Amino acid sequence: MKRAAMRLWTLNKGLLTHGRGLAYGSENKICKPLHIQEVRNKLREIVGVSTIWRDHVKAMEERKLLHNFLATSQKALPPRKMKDSYIEVLLPLGSDPDLRDKYLTVQNTVRFGRILEDLDSLGVLVCYMHNQNHSTKMSPLSIVTVLVDKIDMCKYSLSPEQDIKFTGHVSWVGKTSMEVKMKMFQSSYSFHMHSDDKFWPVLDATFVMVARDSENKGPAFVNPLVPENKEEEELITQGELNKSRRIAFSTTSLLKVAPNSEERNVIHELFLNTLDPKTISFQSRILPPKAVWMEDTKLKSLDICHPQERNIFNRIFGGFLMRKAYELAWATACSFGGSRPYVVTVDDIMFQKPVEVGSLLFLSSQVCFTQDNYIQVRVHSEVASLDSREHMTTNVFHFTFMSEKEVPLIFPKTYGESMLYLDGQRHFKSMSTPVILKKNYTVEP
Ligand SMILES: CC(=O)SCCNC(=O)CCNC(=O)[C@H](O)C(C)(C)COP(=O)(O)OP(=O)(O)OC[C@H]1O[C@@H](n2cnc3c(N)ncnc32)[C@H](O)[C@@H]1OP(=O)(O)O
């Protein structure tokens, strides 16, 4: 590996230093880090879509011709290395005040919803870099987000006055799917970059993206991935384990099988705690002190999905859906906990179905589990077309927040709510390490 590429690769593994001069791309192509605004432009270039909505049908017609470039088997595609897909993106919040406004909350913190949008675009670009075919300008692949496996926040504060840097690369591939690992770092200096800037890690994310054919109608093979050293071998093994974990999680879903005996005891205990001791009845339920019924924690929203929010394939951009769901979840946690909550983990967001432009997007959010200062919020997303009343679930989002003070206990009333409680508890327990609350931990909507 060339020296510069080796340095970049090493930087991705730990603390990122020397903000300037970092690069992205394959071994043979070392460039400056991309500006965040270039990411979506680059994606449009790779996919060859129009920037004007009225031309979108024509642009998609043109993409049909790319079908001939699709591989008939994975073996026919050359293997790639992790560094081939490695990219760096700069979000110069500190040095660009106009950009900063887009990311700013009224409390002078960073809008986490905007970060989710950036991660989604970055994840797609990483996958295009992995599958880059130098013989065609436009890619025959349509890459979509299928799963946000995990986003873990580190405990450093996110300031809108310091530059942010993202890195990402493909860490595992299946036949048509790819796992992408992304990291986010923040500069330790305000307003301007110094040649000796240090970037500290603030976030770790794992997404799964899927390759589809040029019209986004059927599956398409992705290039194989070969490890170059022991660490990369471990990442690939971890990718395999992640796949098995997801399958195991989904086969024990409470939508498919009954809760285990420990969980059944939890639910019965909660039920007994809400029985009115003055009556001998299963029907008289009262709330214990410092507790809230789950049904009283709901918030809902409706959005019309305008063309402005479309992705490169003229469906609604996954990042937009995540931002909307996150902001509703944050408002739910805030009104429940009575103080400003901080996001700790985003977990297992599955994009089951694409959302068409023009759909009505219904989001329902509720607190489904609490413990100490933690609030687990679930957001259910459904769409309906304007001319049909039929609703279809497109996503379920799970967010873990932390409040500055201890929050009330949550009590389910119905069996359905009890399942939501257990599902929330499972997601909460899957959180890697509980974050220690810090006063300067300032990630808000
Ligand atoms: C960047 C953006 O804005 S994209 C917009 C947001 N995303 C979307 O709109 C995507 C909406 N979802 C979909 O269209 C569909 O669910 C699809 C196309 C992603 C998957 O459809 P499926 O019928 O599950 O496809 P299929 O069974 O062929 O699976 C395709 C691959 O996805 C993988 N996959 C499917 N579900 C999951 C999951 N929950 N977690 C991880 N991988 C998954 C499969 O393992 C398979 O990978 P492999 O070929 O490497 O083994």
From TrEMBL:
<keyword id="KW-0378">Hydrolase</keyword>
<keyword id="KW-0809">Transit peptide</keyword>
<dbReference type="GO" id="GO:0005739">
    <property type="term" value="C:mitochondrion"/>
</dbReference>
<dbReference type="GO" id="GO:0005743">
    <property type="term" value="C:mitochondrial inner membrane"/>
</dbReference>
<feature type="domain" description="HotDog ACOT-type">
    <location>
        <begin position="83"/>
        <end position="215"/>
    </location>
</feature>
<dbReference type="GO" id="GO:0052816">
    <property type="term" value="F:long-chain fatty acyl-CoA hydrolase activity"/>
</dbReference>
<dbReference type="GO" id="GO:0005759">
    <property type="term" value="C:mitochondrial matrix"/>
</dbReference>
<dbReference type="GO" id="GO:0006637">
    <property type="term" value="P:acyl-CoA metabolic process"/>
</dbReference>
<dbReference type="GO" id="GO:0001676">
    <property type="term" value="P:long-chain fatty acid metabolic process"/>
</dbReference>
<comment type="similarity">
    <text>Belongs to the acyl coenzyme A hydrolase family.</text>
</comment>
<keyword id="KW-0496">Mitochondrion</keyword>
<keyword id="KW-0677">Repeat</keyword>
<dbReference type="InterPro" id="IPR029069">
    <property type="entry name" value="HotDog_dom_sf"/>
</dbReference>
<dbReference type="GO" id="GO:0046459">
    <property type="term" value="P:short-chain fatty acid metabolic process"/>
</dbReference>
<dbReference type="GO" id="GO:0052689">
    <property type="term" value="F:carboxylic ester hydrolase activity"/>
</dbReference>
<protein>
    <submittedName>
        <fullName>Acyl-CoA thioesterase 9</fullName>
    </submittedName>
</protein>
<keyword id="KW-0719">Serine esterase</keyword>
<dbReference type="InterPro" id="IPR033120">
    <property type="entry name" value="HOTDOG_ACOT"/>
</dbReference>
<dbReference type="GO" id="GO:0003986">
    <property type="term" value="F:acetyl-CoA hydrolase activity"/>
</dbReference>
<dbReference type="GO" id="GO:0047617">
    <property type="term" value="F:fatty acyl-CoA hydrolase activity"/>
</dbReference>
<feature type="domain" description="HotDog ACOT-type">
    <location>
        <begin position="295"/>
        <end position="407"/>
    </location>
</feature>
